[in-house]
Amino acid sequence: MRERIKRHQVSFQNAFTGLWYALTTQPNFIIHFVAAAFVLLLAYFVHLSSIEVVLLVFAILFVFCAEFINTALESMVDLITTEWRQEAKVAKDVSAAMVLITAFGAVLIGILIFGSHL
Q1: Is 67 in the active site?
Q2: Structure-derived torsion over alpha carbons of residues 43, 45, 51, 57, reported in degrees to the nearest 10
Q3: Residues 114, 64 contacting (CB under 8 angstroms)
Q4: Which three-class secondary structure string do you get for the chain?
Q5: Contact present, 105 and 59 (Cβ < 8 Å)
Q6: How many CB atoms lie within 10 A of CB 83?
Q7: Confidence of residue 117 (pLDDT cuts 50, 70, 90)
Q8: Active-site residue among 3, 67, 83, 87?
């Protein structure tokens, strides 16, 4: 049992290390983080319903997950090859497009939710 707890502790430490890496090295993640904080503060001040807040939180988490996947994929591509290759460019571009689309989706959700309250 003690060994199991230690493995989970190491997993959490690794996860927080990844979070810290994203926050300290990825400028776009910081922008998403600040935008999310602003949205949640605004949600508090305009007294959104619980379901509206849940939808916003899901949209925010979706963007964060896309940003994490993008960062991981870009790092993996850089590990595999340091030379310019069309396949590496495609992987990075598509990954960046994933973040862009999720961010646009989150903005649209925000507009739809906040539109009637502002």
Answers
A1: yes
A2: 30
A3: no
A4: CHHHHHHHHHHHHHHHHHHHHHHHHCHHHHHHHHHHHHHHHHHHHCCCCHHHHHHHHHHHHHHHHHHHHHHHHHHHHHHHCCCCCHHHHHHHHHHHHHHHHHHHHHHHHHHHHHHCCC
A5: yes
A6: 5
A7: confident
A8: 67
pLDDT at 21: 94
| Tokens matching residue 108 | 């649209």
Write out pLDDT tens, residues 24-48. Answer: 999 999 999 999 999 999 999 999 9
pLDDT digits (tens, 9 = 90+) for 90-101: 999 999 999 999
Residue type, 63: V
